[in-house]
Amino acid sequence: MKALVYTDIETLEYRDSKDPEIHDGEVLIEVKAVGICGSDLHAYLGHDSRRIAPLILGHEAAGIVKGGTHDGKSAVINPLVTCGKCPACLSGRSNICEQREIISMAPRQGAFAQYITIPERNLVVVPEGMSITKAALAEPIATAWHAVTAAAKASHRPLAECRALVYGGGAVGLSAALSLYAHGCRDILLAETNELRRETVEEEFICTVFNPLDDNLATDGSVDVVIDCVGGRLTRAGASAAVRPGGVIVHVGLMDSDDGIDTRRLTLQEITFIGTYTYTMQDFQATVSAMQSGALGDLGWYAERQLSDGASAFSDLINGRAASSKIILRPE
């Protein structure tokens, strides 16, 4: 099969690769659409010690099922493979499974390829009428949906009564704003430094978008909920300052592990800080249902490229030349 392989720092090669082996309980997926995630960019830049070259990256995928119960159907892949037996899995928190694996991280190859294997239980059938390309957005949206659900549980006020701040206008940040809106929140600020991405987010007409470097609209103590989809020192510092006493900060992004959190203020003002990682299968299914119902808008904020053009797409994303919140690659 053809695959886009990460071979060294800032190096991707479109080349022949070994077909995946199908293990017990797994099915083969013919990949039709796969998004480029921020974690793929981190790996490409050599910033992720867990992703060692050579490796096929990519985990935001949808495709055609080959074999099993759903043979011939279009399906979204939940890329997080869990054991189903540990205390976390049995309590409904499979995303923190002790033995979790995710495709695009050893030992599992990713989906920037013509084919991939995945446990059949990790599939969500694409609803009738939804394009398979749009279905590939389910993974980043599910990450945001999980974060917003966590915020709703921790907040002392319904999200419909909250003022919210989202850091980041990429796919997860925009999805967080859309998920907040779907949960009834109508007072949403979104901070994004990239002008092209700000324009894309503004087209959704669900939030006030601003450049925090020029004009910080999230003044100290002015918001109830912060969803940090960047996860850098500056956004953590901004979140610590912006949140009201008794408010909630949900940390999603993994830009760095530097400081930034004002632990003294969090303590004195009883501010809740939550780290969220990926999603559960319940989140994934709820996300696909929300996508199908239209609760998350028309989901037209992506651009398509051929998988063979993947290296160019990575370059455009790294250098801020991509206006779309998501680039989806399509294997030939």
Entry keywords:
single chain, 332 residues, alpha/beta, Quinone Oxidoreductase, Chain A, domain 1, Rossmann fold, six-stranded parallel sheet, 10 helices, 18 strands, 27% helix, globular
Structural account:
The structure is a single chain. The protein is an alpha/beta fold and 332 residues long. It is 27% helix and 27% strand. The chain folds into two domains: 2-137 and 299-330, Medium-chain alcohol dehydrogenases, catalytic domain (Quinone Oxidoreductase, Chain A, domain 1, Alpha-Beta Complex); 141-275, Rossmann fold. The strands form four sheets. Strands 3, 5, 6, 9, 10, 17 and 18 form a seven-stranded mixed β-sheet that branches. The chain has a six-stranded parallel β-sheet with strand order 13-12-11-14-15-16, sandwiched between helices. Helix 7 links the parallel strand 14 (223-228) and strand 15. Helix 4 packs across helix 5 (171-182) and helix 4 (138-154) crosses helix 9 (281-293). The chain is globular, with a radius of gyration of 19 Å. 47% of the residues are buried. The model has no long low-confidence stretch (mean pLDDT 95).
Task: Briefly characterize the structure.
This protein has helices at residues 38-44, 87-90, 132-135, 138-154, 171-182, 195-202, 233-242, 263-268, 281-293, 310-318; strands at 2-8, 11-16, 26-35, 55-56, 60-66, 74-77, 80-81, 101-102, 115-119, 123-125, 163-167, 187-191, 208-210, 223-228, 243-251, 272-275, 302-306, 326-330. The chain is of the alpha/beta class and 332 residues long.
